[in-house]
Amino acid sequence: MQTESHVLDKPPPGAADDWTIPQDWERYTEEEHATWDILFDRQRRQLPGRASERFLAGVDVLKLSRPGIPDFEELSARLMDATGWKVVAVPGLVPDDVFFDHLANRRFVAGNFIRRRDQLDYLQEPDVFHDVFGHVPMLADPTFADYMAAYGRGGLRALEFGALDHLARLYWYTVEFGLIAEPDGMRIYGSGIVSSHGESVFALDDPSPNRIAFDLKRVMRTNYRIDDYQQVYFVIPSFEELLRVTVETDFAPLYAELERESDLGPADVLPEDVVLTAGTQDYARQKAAE
Ligand code: HBI
Ligand code: FE
Questions:
Q1: Cα of 92 to ligand 2 centre, how many Å?
Q2: Would you say 98 and 160 are in contact if contact means Cβ atoms under 8 Å apart?
């Protein structure tokens, strides 16, 4: 994906062949644990009524024996009981094939560092707050846990087809920035949204972005931006439907079709789209004018 420039091509010194490193939980400072607690309390207060009920149920898995940054050993034991997943530490972004191999084997790779105090609201590389608070609650959900493992297997196949750019968009618009239609209204579940104090409000309440019903091929045609709030969010009807469509679809012919079709920009709308809220794009326009 677009962040490839940050990725080394072999494990750095101290990392194993699969790129994992010890979390070194004992080495976190008081200040680092306190940063986690600030971020955690802020989101815990903001998310009820905004995050999917399935995410909120999963947050309990993070309630460990002590506050601060979770110890991956203890966290993995709890997650293993729930869905057979574990959390392993990595030094930062890892190559795509390594990432997918971990997912396919139910290992979620998490950065072990935490953002600085002057970066509470924005950072480019995934830190332990994004990776653990953002991703782990959904991994405690059996259906979503299966979806992530299926995505890992699909990723390994996409690499063989040279179709990774298309498949990466599925990850982006579901795992990272997905919305879901629940009985009580639209909710957020994407890790990039739930771990962001600003975007967890923007994604649901702001008039600027489009919110469009999820369609697998449509999503895989759509470019995304990594440096600001999204201009479009795709809304799934349920996690069961997301899992079903990904395991039942034969991606090979779909990749061949996508190869022949032009990509769409994040703000494009097609006649066949089911538009749930038509965005003004005011936010993006204002940003572009700055
Ligand atoms: N590495 N640590 C880490 N975290 C990711 O989310 C990640 C990665 N490497 C590659 C990658 N993501 C992409 O291939 C996917 O987002 C598609
Ligand atoms: Fe992420």
A1: 11
A2: no
Give tens-digit pLDDT for 122-136. Answer: 788 899 999 999 999
CA pair distance 102, 171, nearest whole angstrom: 15
Amino acid at 290: E
Q: What is the pLDDT of residue 124?
A: 81
Domain locations in the chain as residue ranges: 25-289
Mutate to test the pocket of ligand 1, among 88, 96, 132 (most ligand atoms within 8 A of CB): 96
pLDDT at 3: 43
What would the mean pLDDT of 96-125 be, rounded to a whole number? 94
- Ligand number, closest to the Cα atom of 195: 2
The DSSP secondary-structure symbol of 222 reads B
What does the alpha-carbon distance between residue 228 and residue 287 come to, in Å, rounded to a whole number?
A: 9
- The pLDDT value recorded for residue 6 is 64
Find residue 264's DSSP bridge partners: 222
- Determine contact, residues 158/76, Cβ cutoff 8 Å: no
> Span 25-289: which CATH code?
1.10.800.10
Q: How far is CA 152 from CA 43, 67, 171, 208, 225, in A?
A: 28, 31, 10, 32, 22
Q: Lowest-confidence range among 5-19, 52-66, 198-212?
A: 5-19
The DSSP annotation for 263-290 comes to PB-TT---TT--EEE----HHHHHHHH-
Q: Cα torsion at 138, 144, 149, 150 (round to 10°)?
A: -150
Helices and strands in the chain, H and E counts:
14, 7
Handedness of CA 155, 60, 129, 127 (dihedral sign): negative
